[in-house]
């Protein structure tokens, strides 16, 4: 499939070794990413063949689901971009094999504490840069690099009025109107129930307010891939627009009403 990335780079191996973990690396695994076996061995990794890797590892890191899944043993942990939502049969297969699967592409990107583990956004960023380089090469003409000056971004509200999730959630029940702009999974009431893709996810309890206004381009799903129950709440008004237009329309309407 042309994959050149590797699940662990030598720098990460060194950090794991410092934590007291023994790290095994499949021979040649990093060659496509310009990390030779010697670079891994230099930081303490043991270079082994694939059979030994599967047989001796408690935790296996990967980019994509391994082809030779029959080699997995019960109680092993498989960590990587497994795309289990796109392949329910794989999830069932791993469950029946009693393998613990942690799929990094299943992390909710709307949750700030998971930002450092968000592999999809980081790789999309890299892909964007690469796409620009490929386009420049294919174009063949002058392709200048244009950048805007970085300005200072400040919240519209004073910092002392910003609230943490745990602090604000108790106030929604006494709030007349809540305005939600763009957020999806992080406002889904389904998170308070077990058995769905957002179960247990920390969310904003905006559905407890007396009225809710949601500005969004469409009813499309969030990263979790399920309907947001907030959108069908009878107290919710949906305004289908991008954020700038939607907010401008609301402010204009409010201004004309007040004056």
The shape, in one word, is elongated
Cα-based radius of gyration, to the nearest Å: 24 Å
Q: What portion of the residues fall into strands of 2 or more residues?
A: 5-15%
Task: Please name the CATH architecture of the largest domain.
Answer: 3-Layer(aba) Sandwich
> According to CATH, what is the topology of the largest domain?
Rossmann fold
Secondary-structure-derived class: alpha/beta
What does the largest sheet look like?
A: 3 strands, parallel
Counting DSSP H or I runs of 4 or more residues, the number of helices is: 7
β-strand number: 8
Account of the 3D structure:
Residues 147-156 have low confidence and may be disordered. The chain is an alpha/beta fold and 259 residues long. It has helices at 10-18, 37-42, 50-56, 88-96, 119-139, 165-168, 243-258, and strands spanning 24-26, 46-48, 59-61, 77-80, 100-103, 177-181, 211-216, 236-240. The strands form 3 sheets. The protein has a 3-stranded parallel beta sheet, covered by helices on one side. Strands 6-7-8 form a 3-stranded parallel beta sheet, covered by helices on one side. It contains 7 helices and 8 strands, in the order αβαβαββαβααβββα. The chain has 2 domains: 10-105, Rossmann fold (3-Layer(aba) Sandwich); 159-258, Rossmann fold (3-Layer(aba) Sandwich).
């Amino acid at each position: 499939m042309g994959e050149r990335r590797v699940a662990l780079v030598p720098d990460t191996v060194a950090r794991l070794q410092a934590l007291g973990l023994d790290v095994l690396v499949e021979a040649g695994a990093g060659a496509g990413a310009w990390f030779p076996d010697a670079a891994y061995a230099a930081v303490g990794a043991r270079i082994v063949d694939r059979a030994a890797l599967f047989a001796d590892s408690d935790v296996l890191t990967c980019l994509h689901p391994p082809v030779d899944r029959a080699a997995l043993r019960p109680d092993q942990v498989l960590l990587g971009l497994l795309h289990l939502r796109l392949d329910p049969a794989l999830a069932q297969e791993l469950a029946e094999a009693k393998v613990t699967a942690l799929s990094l592409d299943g992390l909710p990107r709307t949750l700030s504490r998971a930002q450092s583990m968000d592999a999809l956004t980081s790789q999309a960023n890299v892909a964007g840069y690469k796409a620009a380089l490929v386009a420049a090469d294919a174009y063949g003409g002058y392709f200048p690099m244009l950048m805007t000056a970085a300005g200072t971004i400040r919240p519209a509200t004073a910092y002392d009025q910003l609230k943490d999730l745990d602090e604000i959630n108790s106030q929604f029940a006494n709030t007349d109107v809540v305005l939600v702009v763009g957020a999806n999974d992080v406002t889904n009431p389904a998170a308070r129930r077990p058995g769905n893709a957002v179960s247990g996810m920390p969310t904003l309890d905006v559905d407890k307010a007396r009225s809710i206004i949601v500005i969004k381009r469409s009813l499309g799903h969030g990263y979790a891939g399920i309907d947001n129950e907030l959108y069908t709440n009878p107290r919710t008004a949906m305004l289908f627009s991008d954020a700038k237009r939607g907010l401008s329309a609301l402010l204009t309407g409010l201004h004309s009403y007040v004056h």
